[in-house]
Amino acid sequence: MDIFEKRLLRFLAGYCMLWAATVILSRTVLMLNFIPSGSMEGTIRTGDFVLGTRYDIGEGDIERYDILVFAPPDEPDTVYIKRVIGLPGETVVVCDGSVYADGVRLDDSFVKNPMNTKGDGTYVVPDGCYFVMGDNRNQSDDSRFWTEKYVPVENVEGKAKFIVFPFKNIGAV
């Protein structure tokens, strides 16, 4: 084996190890998502690329206001990104532009436009599920409008953490 063949083999071995590490990390630790719609405008813009984590999505790891990447129950082959509003066992009331969980008005400082009354109602979140809404509430297809209103923890693929592209939008979400 000459020097060229040895270098080629080393390069190919290094490339294969890098490829394997990337595949393992992207399936177990990190995820990258392109945002195709404006349902999270105000926080995440249409066209942003968001880096998320996969390791912190168990039932005890998800908190109110986390931004989740998930398969909605009505469209299991689609990926959505929305903010957690209701936790397992809570009663969420959406009324006259405000949202309440178990009678406490929730923070909506991340919502840029006043919310219309479409989707007003009372929602009781089952155990093991979450009630989610987009930050652009008037343009969001979310829990309020689905036939199956709640996202089961098994449908959660990750938590959005950082906008990584375009560079002008880089930052934590």
Summarize the structure.
With 173 residues, the chain is of the alpha+beta class. The chain is built from 1 helix and 12 strands, in the order αββββββββββββ. The longest helix has 26 residues.
Describe the protein.
With 173 residues, the protein is of the alpha+beta class. It is 15% helix and 32% strand. It has 1 helix and 12 strands; from the N terminus they run αββββββββββββ. Strands 1, 2, 3, 4, 9, 10, 11 and 12 form an 8-stranded antiparallel sheet that branches. The mean pLDDT is 94.
Spell out the blueprint of helices and strands.
Elements: H1 3-28, E1 30-34, E2 49-53, E3 67-70, E4 80-86, E5 91-95, E6 98-101, E7 104-105, E8 121-124, E9 129-133, E10 151-152, E11 156-165, E12 171-172
Antiparallel strand pairs: 1-2, 2-11, 3-4, 3-11, 4-9, 5-6, 5-8, 6-7, 9-10, 11-12
